Amino acid sequence: MDRDEFRKFGYELIDWIAEYYDTIENHPVKSRVKPREVMDKLPPNPPNAGESFENIMEDFKNIILPGITHWQSPNFFAYFPANSSMPSVLAELLTSALAVQGMVWETSPAATELEELVMNWLKEMTGIPVYFHGVIQDTASTATLVALLSAREKITSFDVNESGFQSNKYRVYCSTEAHSSIEKAVKVAGFGRKSLRRIQVDEQLRMIPEELEKYIQSDIKNGFIPACVVSAIGTTGTVAIDPLQSVAEICKKYSVWHHVDAAYAGSAMIIEENRKFIEGIEEADSYVFNPHKWMFTNFDCSAYFVKDKEILIRTFEIMPEYLKTAADNQVNNYRDWGIQLGRRFRALKLWFVIRSMGVEGIKEKIRNHITWAKEFAEEIRKEKHFEIHEPQNLGLVCFRLHLPSVPDQEKRNQINKRFLETINNTGKAYLSHTKVHGEFTLRFVVAQTNVTRDHVWNAWKMIKEIAEKFSKNEQ
Ligand code: PLP
User: Fold this and answer.
1) 304 to each of 165, 235, 307, 323, how far by Cα in Å?
2) pLDDT at position 331, please?
3) Residue 236 alpha carbon, nearest atom of ligand 1
4) Distance of alpha carbon 263 from alpha carbon 273, whole angstroms
5) What value, to the nearest 5°, has the Cα angle with vertex 119 and ends 448 and 231?
6) Could you tell me the residue ranges of all domains in the chain?
């Protein structure tokens, strides 16, 4: 493709994207394709000769697009969002055009310095103490792995880096509700899955600190060494909030690394009254939240903060001759702040979003989402067809059909599963699910960039109508 073609198709593509966003609600939110349907429509072998852009776009529209679940639809209420916004899309375009590789400061000074700057902005915006050091990781999963590796090196005086594990006596702790990325990180970091202690939760699905302390004490007594505790500020299932302050005190008492996973909820700390959820953060060793979830910045953009950056850097540092530069002592070289050497220029999109929306603009959006989720929850509470999980936290509402005449849990779960499928099959809204105390529970998340109060109310009306039919048929 030459530059003239690039201009022509580039302008057309921007028009296509604007049109897509204008008409996104015409698509079923959840893709309706069957397994392998996309694959079967595409030639199995790569073309020998280059094809025209028009042809590629035709296939994109006719084959790829039907296989897309529309995460940017305002009717997307599933999982947690992977949000985008117009300034973020444009910044991604620039990032891909510049296509810099920010492994060290010298390979693109602005990429490194902008990253340091926006990480400092995020601290100020969300109440993270100034003495933390920020770095962008691709995902919260990677950030948690980075935290576990740092904890591993700290507790072994950097010996696993040198000699590998000499014995399997280390323990990692998180609640039974914590995200699967912790289990994955424990496997990858070499602790082994058996070293992960799942701590019981209370009725509200929060880690019970007394249980954590009991496990730590018993492990120490039995010759194990507690290496890391991971607290969840907003679990994936129900946005349960672990009692950070109490967990922090226990970690301090037993000198255990304390990592805090606020992947979704962290963005809400931009609103001062939510900061109660992170009281105790001052004592944490590391903290992660995802602007790619609820700060309107394209995936991937995960904000990782660490108190002692020397431990982080010593854990990951490598110094081959070909990476040495004259500026090494004066700047951050982010290749040593995580796993990858090569790094995308992710700070640009975050900078575009924060500048374009302003702190007040971001706050207003998040505040609205929380308000509309609370209104939705209020409606659920009023209706006899539903049960709601309490407490309802931030933008998530967990609810299910109230089925008093169905004593069997498995049967209730099947009915609620069909209820969810019926909602999603309308194509007008997309919700996901979790299990709460064994009960199949629907999750309704109000957090999409373009969602309005009307979208929430329309979804509510539709859900209520389907529930009425279900309740009639099932009781
Ligand atoms: N932690 C929590 C609490 C999450 O909810 C999620 C994803 O939803 C993750 C971690 C993993 O996030 P990522 O996809 O950025 O790895």
Assistant:
1) 26, 17, 10, 24
2) 87
3) 5
4) 18
5) 70
6) 1-30+69-84+358-475, 101-344
